Amino acid sequence: MLSQASKDIIAATLPAVKACATDITGVFYPLMFERYPEVKAFFNQTHQAQGTQRQALANAVVAYAANLDRLEVLGDAVSLIVQKHVSLGIQPEHYPIVGECLLAAIREVLGEAATDQVLGAWGEAYGQLAELLIGAEEAQYAGNAARPGGWRGERTFKVVRRERESEVIESFYLQPADGGELATFKPGQYICLVLDIDGQQVRRNYSLSCRPGLDYYRISVKREPSGLVSGYLHDRVLVGDELLLSAPAGDFVLNDAERPLVLLSAGVGITPTLSMLRPALESGRVVHFLHGALNSRHQAFGADVAALQQGYPALQVQVLYSEPLAEDAGQPQGLFDQARLAALLPAERDLDVYLLGPKAFMQSCHASLRSLGVAAERIRYEFFGPLEVIEG
Ligand SMILES: Cc1cc2nc3c(=O)[nH]c(=O)nc-3n(C[C@H](O)[C@H](O)[C@H](O)COP(=O)(O)OP(=O)(O)OC[C@H]3O[C@@H](n4cnc5c(N)ncnc54)[C@H](O)[C@@H]3O)c2cc1C
Ligand code: HEM
Predict the structure, then answer these.
(1) Which residue's CA lies nearest to atom 15 of ligand 1?
(2) Which fold has domain 261-381?
(3) How far is CA 162 from CA 113, 141, 165, 214, 225, in A?
(4) Using an 8 Å Cβ cutoff, are 246 and 272 in contact?
(5) Active site residue 95
(6) Which CATH fold would you assign to the domain 4-146?
(7) Which atom of ligand 2 is nearest to 130's Cα?
(8) Which residue among 7, 64, 136, 388 is least packed, with the fewest CB closer than 10 Å?
């Protein structure tokens, strides 16, 4: 339990820390990578360069310090961090490293205001948060290991099939190399790939794009321009190759409500919605599958989704091309703006929406859905990177 004296110091210094939180995390990461180069491989260096991880950590620290007496309000935020940490393999012994470097960064940025007393209080608060995360992460690691077909850490998988889904998206079908049982997962969850690319260890998350309960996992990867891992997977990983995977994680998962479901995605954001689609239909839900793609050459899984309409009349599908090609004449075009969503959604707004795509797409769809009367807590979304702010 944090002492009252520490709580008072944190409350008094929170405005100063909040005002320069991204400066603090901006000092923190280079310092940590210099002092402890062994942790660098856990971090996505693109997120470092783009500043998204720095912002996510700053937001988390400030939200925590502002809610020391009611940590329960941080439930979803804590769970998001725990899921991400577990998928990446973060261990208890990493916490003192982060604690030391975070305090050193606070000292450097706050200058004279960072007295020993102030740093002591923030250190105490960090220790409390670290304890909470370590406990929740251990529970998750242990749960993963105890599940039938589950495992702790990384497990070797074999690529058993590759499938081209569009000009830019390639699917990889993966089975355990040991021939053993495969843990099921919740529709919408992701795994982490741990790769060694030319001597550099890198980690990347990929959503499972198949339904649960099969004897393989499938990931579907978009080739990013000059993307390190997506380029490696597309160009160098062949059937028969082995890959290291962490167990499925994540809370962007299909709920078991009965109300109509809207799966609203753009581009490669389609992947988790694919794993939700069939289980939702099998449970008897009405599903509106709305997907935006640049054009027919970029659109993936169109035939798979259309085929499901045969067996499930409750499935409504709308695909829109935002940059149609000449050969796409006659296909629905445009964006999922407010007018389009108003026309597509059922009049009764008691819906569950799962939203995933580029940030601008999610921001615009979120605003439209809210204007159309969909409650904020009914709109779930995920970023293919650190959490960013979506609501204006
Ligand atoms: C939960 C989750 C689920 C995901 N699911 C999927 C999925 O199902 N399918 C999928 O394809 N992806 C998914 N992703 C994204 C995936 O993890 C990778 O981020 C993606 O594949 C790109 O990785 P990369 O190594 O190929 O590209 P990176 O090398 O990380 O680069 C990404 C882009 O940033 C640019 N870039 C790199 N460095 C810089 C810099 N310094 N400045 C400016 N630009 C830079 C690159 O040129 C490239 O265009 C998911 C991510 C998360 C967090
Ligand atoms: C109290 C301590 C910590 C807090 C509050 C914290 C917070 C966060 C947050 C908010 C995210 C972003 C989650 C998301 O939006 O996806 C994150 C991701 C991450 N954290 Fe932590 N974290 C802590 C400790 C650690 C430790 C000890 C390590 C190990 C060195 C670590 C490594 C990572 C990594 C590798 C990521 C993903 C980064 C990326 O995508 O580039 N964290 N953490």
Answers:
(1) 384
(2) Rossmann fold (3.40.50)
(3) 57, 30, 10, 16, 20
(4) no
(5) yes
(6) Globin-like (1.10.490)
(7) 1
(8) 388
